[in-house]
Amino acid sequence: MRKATLIASILVLGLATATASAARCKHRVDRSAEIEPDGITTVEIYALAGDLRVRGVEGETAVRATGDACVSKEGMLEEIGITARRTDDRIQILAEMPDTSGETGDRWARQYAVMDLVVELPAGMAVVVHDSSGDLEVTNLASAEVSDSSGGIELRDIAGPVVIPRDSSGDIYMERVGDVTIQVDSSGEIEIREADSVTIANDTSGDIIIRQIRGSVLIGNDSSGAISARDVDGDLIVENDTSGGIRYERVAGQVSVPEERLGR
């Protein structure tokens, strides 16, 4: 019931936000780009402000990017674009927007440039994402590496490894993925379900929820927030936990956690 209520609230909030954004957006433009992989198996995406959706599509043969951009001044429209190019070993998708990083205050009361980006590619490809701000969703791909400054991250149906070198803020949710490695997470909840294994090197704040792991779970350092692990086929190791309780159920392998944090 709580999950259904939460989803309903998010949908209502999202609709209200979208309506307000549409009303306040002074100038809107669509951009797109397309490129054939020609044997390349990795796509690297550079996104700026705005939401990003990356989708592996069964039967797709091209990499297609579409962007919906909103800017505060008409003169900025000519600076909006999407570039698709091929390097030696990967395809790159680059969102291009005017720099408004020096602006402060309410988004709609200042100069702004935002692009919501959707990238569709063959389902068997790998993706490397560099995202500035806004929510990020990656689904149905061979592997994923994601670096994100702010905004929520959701990864689902990733057959191989998932790597997050750094996430500054925002919740992380994963489901049906391979080996998971999170090197640095500064703030926000982490929830991982149905993964091959989980390694979280350093988490500063936010709860960690882990369910249905086929291998082992290793958490190096957790500064604050509760840790909950359930249905782990391998080991559960928490090397250091500064604050917050640790609870676990049905761990098949070795359990090594700070005793003073158990059950809190």
Descriptive overview:
The protein is mainly β. The chain has one helix at 2-24, and strands spanning 27-35, 42-49, 52-57, 63-71, 81-86, 91-96, 113-122, 126-133, 136-141, 143-150, 153-158, 162-164, 167-169, 172-185, 190-203, 208-213, 217-222, 227-232, 236-241, 246-251, 255-256. β5 and β6 (91-96) form a beta hairpin. The longest helix has 23 residues, at 2-24. It is globular and about 60 Å long. The model is unreliable at 1-23 and 104-109 (pLDDT under 50).
N-to-C order of helices and strands: HEEEEEEEEEEEEEEEEEEEEE
Q: Which descriptor suits the 3D outline?
A: globular
Q: Provide the structure class.
A: mainly beta
N-to-C terminal Cα separation, in Å?
25 Å
* Strand count: 21
* Total domain modules: 2
| Mean pLDDT over the full residue set | 86
Radius of gyration: 20 Å
State the helical fraction. Answer: under 10%
Strand content: over 45%
Q: Which regions are unreliable across 5 or more consecutive residues at pLDDT < 50?
A: 1-23, 104-109
Q: How large is the count of helical segments?
A: 1
User: Main sheet?
Assistant: 21 strands, mixed
What's the structural blueprint in terms of helices and strands?
Blueprint: H1 2-24, E1 27-35, E2 42-49, E3 52-57, E4 63-71, E5 81-86, E6 91-96, E7 113-122, E8 126-133, E9 136-141, E10 143-150, E11 153-158, E12 162-164, E13 167-169, E14 172-185, E15 190-203, E16 208-213, E17 217-222, E18 227-232, E19 236-241, E20 246-251, E21 255-256
Parallel strand pairs: 2-6, 2-8, 3-7, 3-9, 8-10, 9-11, 10-12, 10-13, 11-14, 12-14, 14-15, 15-16, 15-17, 16-18, 17-19, 18-20, 19-21
Antiparallel strand pairs: 1-4, 4-7, 5-6
